[in-house]
Write a structure and sequence with these properties.
Pdz3 Domain; 2-enoyl-CoA Hydratase, Chain A, domain 1; 4 domains; 6-stranded antiparallel beta sheet; 21 strands
């Protein structure tokens, strides 16, 4: 019997070998052939779905750093923030001491309509306890979100009320805003911060512009620091506001995709007035498209540090189960012809991942002179013929070094441990009514509120309870920064994310440099006409 079985296996192997050797096999045939061998002959049960997913991931790893595969769950997490809305109950929350703490309710959203307010603790949702049970944030979110029109019964603990309050909330579509802040930085300068380029970003931007113009805006600072990108179409829409009819915003090229030129259709409504784009090393993709379009068309100036250098275009290829491949199909080029993408080696994720640290260690974030460009990467802007450089990312017209003077290990531990955020939540919870009475709006708060020495002592004591030992020398170095960040977080909890930036921006060197430049006609015009006269070597640091 054993001999017969062994002979059968040999026979099957011979058949497979004959098939394999009968002709040249295409790559797709070889992959299916390998899968068939594993499924039919592997010693144990095979999870075919997992095997296929891992094969896809492995294939994509041999390509560029941005081609990727995502599971159905990962795909939803990736795309939802860019869709601009989701269906839920309309709150911003934080899990504090294993309790769901309502930070803010969405204006006219489901929770606000039924009377839930900031400071409330949501104890249960549809008879499922979600506070005090160490439930993961994702599991909490699953219980609060759901199809539009469905209901969720909430039990809420409110300060000063001995019994739990009951609310029935009807889920609605909730907007996810990408414009984090819009306010007047001075009498004539508007400021808008954009966190991502989503479907509704342009509508949010237009609404912000309308309000700022009513307040006297003549010039504009757009903050794209830490903005990792989003939709190409949204970047095109945003840049078009500032350009003339038929101006080039960006173009794409790829081996298997025809070149496509994105030109404006009609004159933009913001063609007058000074414009400055703020960027840093984490500004990427769509942020770089906007910065490059403004710079190359000589419409405004870019201030900050060299951007990330993500100039590869991904096209989504969805599968029926909700999973997706995002495959790189082309490259972005600025109007002058610069390729935005920084250099990379196929299949070498580690090298690509370490690039930011290498740039930091080379001194690029601190010193403009550490950045060198080859003459072969020299381009000129379209109107004023200023010299700009390719080689990855957008180099700003005015470089601003990263500020580390107030940073310390003690401060980083305070932030990283979550103690600073926890302290601010508790402080607002204990003092909300008084703070709102003393500071009816965020302008009053920004001008008049100060973090007291007693508050700092309380915060230091809280950190020490969490094994963060007090360090006098490092505390003195970071004291001002700690106070500013505490004040900014309290402002955000009391009012909105806009209030956070109203407090923080005056301490940001990039913002300060931009505000000074936009009010200096001579220097602004000089940079716009002549450019930044930087020295260059014959090699580029990669």
């Amino acid at each position: 019997m054993r001999k017969i079985l062994f002979t059968g296996i040999i026979g099957l192997c011979i058949c497979f070998n004959a098939f394999a050797q009968s002709a040249e096999m295409r790559a797709d045939q070889k992959l299916r052939y390998a899968a068939g061998i594993i499924e039919n002959y592997y010693v144990d049960t095979v999870n075919s779905d997992k095997m296929v997913e891992e094969a896809i991931v492995a294939m994509l790893k041999t390509l560029d750093p941005h081609s990727s595969y995502s599971t159905p769950e990962e795909t939803k997490e990736l795309t939802e923030p860019l869709k601009g809305k989701f269906s839920g109950i309309g709150i911003t929350f934080n899990m504090q001491n294993d309790t769901l703490y309502v930070l803010q309710t969405v204006a006219n959203g489901p929770c606000e309509k039924v009377g839930i307010v900031a400071g409330d603790r949501i104890i249960s949702a549809n008879d499922t306890i979600i506070s005090g049970v160490k439930m993961k944030n994702n599991d909490v979110i699953k219980r609060l979100r759901g199809p539009k029109g469905t209901t969720v019964d909430l039990k809420v603990k409110r300060k000063g009320k001995p019994e739990l309050l009951s609310f029935r909330v009807v889920r609605e579509e909730i907007p996810i805003y990408s414009v984090d802040a819009a306010y007047m930085a001075d009498n004539t300068t508007g400021y808008i911060r954009i966190s991502r380029f989503a479907e509704e970003t342009d509508e949010e931007f237009k609404s912000a512009i309308k309000d700022l113009k009513k307040e006297g805006m003549k010039n504009l600072i757009i903050d794209l620091q830490d903005n990792g990108g989003g939709y190409l179409g949204t970047a095109y829409q945003l840049a078009s506001h500032f350009l003339n009819n038929n101006d080039l915003v960006v173009y794409t090229e790829g081996l298997n995709s025809s070149p496509y030129y994105f030109r404006t259709e009609g004159n933009g409504d913001l063609r007058n007035g000074k414009v400055i784009i703020l960027v840093n090393q984490y500004s990427a993709s769509a942020s770089e498209i906007v910065a490059g379009a403004i710079q190359d068309n000589d419409r405004g100036l870019v201030v900050g540090r060299r951007t990330f250098g993500k100039g590869l275009v991904q096209r989504p290829f969805p599968f029926p189960d909700g999973s997706m491949i995002r495959l790189t199909i082309s490259r972005y080029h600025t109007p002058s012809g610069r390729c935005i993408q920084k250099p990379y080696t196929l299949g070498d994720e580690e090298e690509y991942r370490d690039d930011m640290m290498n740039r930091y260690e080379a001194g690029e974030f601190m010193n403009e002179d550490s950045i060198h460009f080859a003459d072969s990467l020299k381009y000129t802007t379209l109107k004023n013929k200023r010299i700009v450089y390719g080689g990855g990312g957008i180099m700003p017209d005015k470089f601003v070094p990263i500020d580390t003077t107030e940073n310390s290990e003690y401060y980083r531990r305070m932030i990283g441990s979550g103690n600073l955020h926890k302290y601010c939540l508790n402080y607002v919870d204990e003092n909300r009514s008084k703070l709102k009475k003393d500071y009816p709006n965020d302008d009053d708060f920004v001008k008049k509120f100060n973090v007291s020495e007693d508050m700092m002592k309380e915060f230091i004591a809280q950190c020490e309870k969490d094994s963060i030992k007090y360090n006098e020398e490092q505390y003195r170095r970071s004291e001002n920064l700690i106070k500013v960040v505490i004040k900014a977080n309290i402002a955000s909890d009391l009012y909105s994310s806009k209030s956070f930036y109203k407090v923080l921006n005056p301490q940001d060197n990039v913002f300060k440099a931009a505000l000074e430049l936009i009010n200096n006609d001579e220097e602004y015009n000089r940079l716009l006409l002549e450019g930044n006269k930087r020295e260059n070597s014959n090699s580029i640091k990669k």
